[in-house]
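Record type: monomer structure entry
Structure origin: computed from sequence
Chain ID: A
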Amino acid sequence: MAPTSETLTAERILEATEEVLRRHGPAKATVVDVARALGVSHGSVYRHFRTKAALREAVTKRWLDRTSEALAGIAADSGRAPEARLRDWLAALFEAKRRKAGDDPELFATYMVLTGESGTAVGEHIADLTGQLTAIVAAGVADGSFAAPDPAAAARAVFQATGRFHDPGYFREWELPGADDDFTAVTDLLLQGLRRV
C-alpha cells in the first residue's frame, strides 16, 4: 500500500466511503475497499471507526446532515415571517430530497439501504428536522400568526402530513406530473390550519 502524504481524517474516510459505496453498492463495499481508495491499511480506517457498522452509520449521518444544515438557515431566519419560513422550509426539504434521488440514483439507492440499517442516524435526523419546524411554529405562535397550543406537536403533525414529499419511500412519486401542485395544496392546507383565526 502506497503511503499517503495527506493526513488521514474521519472526513477523508467518509468521502472515500461515499465513493466506494457509489462504485460497489452497500452489499459489496468493504472497509478494505475504503482503505485501498485512501492508500492506507484497513487498520488505519478502524482507528477512526471501530467497526464497519460504525463507518456506515457515520456516512449515513453525514448524508442526512447535509439536508439538516441546508434547512437550518431557513428555520433560524427570524427576519422573515414564520409562515414564509415554514413554506420555504418545506419547499427546500422537498427539493433537497428530490435532488438527492434524481442527481445520483445509485448513491440514493445505496443510502436507502444504509438508512434502513441505521442505528440512530435516522432518528436523530428526524428529531433535528422536527426541532427546526418546532422553532418556526413557536415563532408563529409568539408573533400571533399561528394558533398552536403545542408547537412541538404541531411541528410533528406538519412533518408527518408532508411525508409524501420528503420520505425516501415515496421518491418515485416526486417527479410525477402534478407532484408540485400536490405539494402546494398540502402546504396551503397546513398553513391555513395553523393560522390564528
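Annotation 1: The chain has nine helices and no strands.
Annotation 2: The CA atoms of residues 19 and 168 lie 21 Å apart.
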